[in-house]
Write a structure and sequence with these properties.
heterodimer; A: about 425 residues; alpha/beta; Rossmann fold; 3 domains; 10 helices; about 25% helix; B: mainly alpha; 13 helices; about 0% strand
């Protein structure tokens, strides 16, 4: 199919912050009672004075049918807002968007599943939620069930399903959706590896079939693999609209610039964070040189995360990501080991010691998430950047920069003499 | 890589323009409702199915509730207080009122929460939001059908043959549905912004029960108060039910007319309010 799938002109979305937007009934009622005539004018004026946050502004893009578009940017850059406008969930405050063709959203697994309904009933409900016609679902029902491998449990309520089974069923429904425009918002962040694999294959297939895909993810590796075009958003505006490689490069530069700022100044924090404690500073140091943010492969290194507040039961998760934006490894204090300690003498600092850093030479970044009281308190992508210098792993020198992969494992060979 | 043909022929897709709207635009757009009819059907089916799943008595609850009230009312008001029942057996008299009332109170309670309970859907999927309160009403209609059937059985057991006026029953039910839809749409919409509604609803339902002639006949009121009270559409519906099913003496045509008009106003006002604020649901919920 040729032609324009999505066209927007001067698209913007604003939110009014503060009490008068989200205010409670009492305020509205007492205000109305006190100033029955003034209320409207007064409220309008107050709304003007209150902070207006532009989540999105001046977005003018044109997406052809068959484009596979990746939206990238910090948290709060406006990616999800743009997706929400295109999918009609929310209205723009200014400008317009023309959408041609049926829009389908690949949602987080299980959105709209009802636990009391059986597998069969949920297939129909979920299909309708995703925008499928009843006849369409009926026609593809057997296929869906076979794909999900849940034939035997079709008439069992979904609440009795294992989590694996409900994920498979939910995905099977979504996989049989055939919209002209597919919107995907970070679904791949959830689910197990198999599910992620399947979703990726599905999206690659959709893209091959010449349908339009608009894709939001923090996983730049996936964006790079799937998308042909990238749009980089920052604070609600388009910074780059370019071939995906270029857009990603711009984003990585942006992240790196942000890491050199004071971390407390950064606004692109994990939106789910409660903020009772916040990440102040993150650094990685080589144990022998003590130099920050330059480490030698194979040697001992320590990551320190400085926070504003010490809370009981704090947990920290580090994600080390390579220069292509692909995660290399995750270090998570919630998965505990006998060697872990809680120490009252260290102040507001979390330390993670890596005995022998198995990373190959190159540039990496650290994404940090801090939890306390079982809730995410703060999270930052690209909280620190560091270079790995070539080193030695168990006496074996590392290959030079640019070789395959990101890690070198300690190993020994036995070769025929 | 090659482009596969679409698996099924489609009409040329139409272009939808998305922009800021004002005033009334959504709920009352029949094309929009029709486009999403399959989802409406699925939501209603879900609400009906889920209602009595994993309950021991199942759909029997649809009638146990009004019957329970009937027994209590008969003892308290019929026997002890000796309230008049317009010459009808008090049990029948109250049951005929309780059947439409139970539908109304249940719908109101569940319907007011319908948007908030489906937060996930509202914030992640587009569809005409009115389907959520409508789904609750559709589920309630199944109960109402069961309860009405049982009401007829009880009436026949008492040896009463419903009069010809029974033919007005669909009209009475229409008044009931319109009122329920208007009030539910309004409360559900307000609930998105002000969760205070959660505390207001049980109270409202109680008050509404008192001002509706269910335990007592509306003939206790003097004219013109009696006629005026029919501004509450439930007055016309309840008295209408008694007349249509039990054949109570005088036809409450005046009450039904006023209640019908009032129901039309309520349903238009409720839907209009819903329509005005629908566009902000996803941002506020």
């Amino acid at each position: 199919m040729a032609g324009v799938a999505i066209e927007t002109d001067g698209l913007g979305k604003s939110y009014v912050l503060g009490l008068h937007q989200m205010g409670n009934l009492r305020e509205t009622v007492t205000e109305a009672a006190r100033h029955p005539l003034r209320t409207f004018a007064r409220r309008r004026r107050l709304a003007k004075e209150a902070d207006v946050l532009w989540a999105l502004r001046d977005i003018s893009i044109s997406v052809e049918h068959g484009d596979v578009l990746g939206l990238i940017g910090h948290n709060g850059a406006g990616k999800s807002t743009l997706l929400k406008i295109i999918s009609r969930i929310t209205e723009p405050s200014e400008g317009w968007a023309d959408v041609t063709g049926r829009v389908g959203s690949l949602l987080e697994v299980g959105t709209g599943f009802h636990p009391e309904l059986t597998g069969r009933e949920n297939v129909f409900l979920n299909g309708a939620i995703l925008g499928m016609r009843r006849g369409e679902i009926r026609r593809r029902f057997d296929e869906i069930v076979e794909f999900a491998e849940v034939e035997r449990f079709l008439d069992t309520p979904v609440k009795r399903y294992s989590s694996g089974m409900s994920v498979r069923l939910a995905f099977a429904v979504a996989a049989h959706l055939e919209p002209e425009i597919l919107l995907v918002d970070e679904v791949l962040a959830v689910g197990d590896a198999t599910f992620q694999r399947k979703s990726l294959d599905k999206m690659a297939q959709v893209a091959r079939e010449g349908r339009t895909v608009v894709f939001v993810s923090h996983n730049l590796g996936i964006i790079r693999a799937l998308c042909t075009r990238g749009i980089l958003l920052d604070r609600g505006q388009i910074v780059a609209d370019a071939p995906v490689e270029d857009a990603i490069d711009r984003y990585l530069e942006m992240l790196e610039r942000a890491a050199s700022e004071d971390l407390l100044d950064r606004a692109d924090r994990d939106p789910t964070g409660k903020g009772a404690t916040r990440i102040r500073h993150v650094a990685i140091r080589d144990a022998s040189s003590g130099q920050p943010d330059v480490v030698v492969g194979g040697r001992q290194a320590t990551v320190t995360v400085e926070v504003t507040e010490v809370l009981p039961e704090m947990q920290c998760r580090l994600l080390i990501v390579n220069s292509l934006g692909q995660p290399v490894t995750r270090l998570d204090s919630e998965v505990s080991s006998a060697g872990d300690r809680r120490d009252s003498g260290v102040g507001p600092t979390i330390e993670c010691q890596i005995d022998s850093l198995p990373l190959l030479p190159g540039r990496y970044r650290i994404d940090v998430r801090v939890k306390a009281r079982e809730r995410v308190q703060d999270g930052l992508l690209g909280a620190a950047y560091f270079d790995v210098q070539p080193g030695v792993v168990e006496g074996r020198p590392m290959p030079a920069h640019g070789s395959d992969g990101d890690v070198m494992l300690p190993h020994t060979w036995r070769l025929p003499a | 890589m090659f482009k596969q043909p679409m698996t099924e022929p489609r009409q040329a897709p139409e272009t939808i323009r998305l922009q800021a709207t004002r005033g009334f635009s959504r709920v009352l757009a029949p094309r929009e409702l029709w486009r999403y009819r399959d989802l409406a059907y699925q939501i209603a089916a879900r609400d009906i199915t889920v209602r009595y799943r994993q309950t021991a008595l199942g759909a029997a609850w649809a009638i146990l509730q009004p019957i329970g009230f009937m027994v209590v009312f008969s003892l308290l008001f019929g026997r002890l207080a000796g309230i008049s029942s317009d010459g009808l057996p008090y049990a029948l008299f109250s049951l005929a009122g309780l059947v439409p009332w139970t539908f109304f109170s249940t719908t109101l309670t569940l319907g007011a929460d319908s948007l908030v309970m489906n937060q996930e859907l509202v914030s992640k999927i587009y569809f005409p939001r009115i389907f959520l309160p409508v789904g609750v009403i559709a589920a309630g209609m199944v109960d109402l059908a069961i309860a009405t059937t049982i009401l007829f059985v009880v009436v026949l057991v008492y040896g009463i043959v419903p009069p010809l006026a029974v033919l007005t029953l669909p009209l009475l039910i229409l008044i009931l549905l319109a009122t329920a839809l208007g009030v539910t749409a309004f409360l559900a919409a307000v609930n998105v912004r002000y969760r205070d509604v959660r505390y207001v609803v049980p109270f409202t339902v109680q008050m509404w029960l008192f001002i509706t002639p269910i335990a007592y006949p509306s003939s206790l009121l003097d004219e013109p108060l009696r006629t005026l009270s029919a501004v509450n559409p439930l007055v016309g519906v309840v008295e209408g039910f008694r007349w249509a099913v039990l054949g109570s003496v005088d036809a409450p045509l005046g009450l039904i007319a006023i209640s019908g008009l009032s129901a039309v106003v309520i349903v238009i006002a409720g839907l209009a309010y819903f329509d005005r604020v629908e566009r902000s649901f996803a941002d506020l919920i």
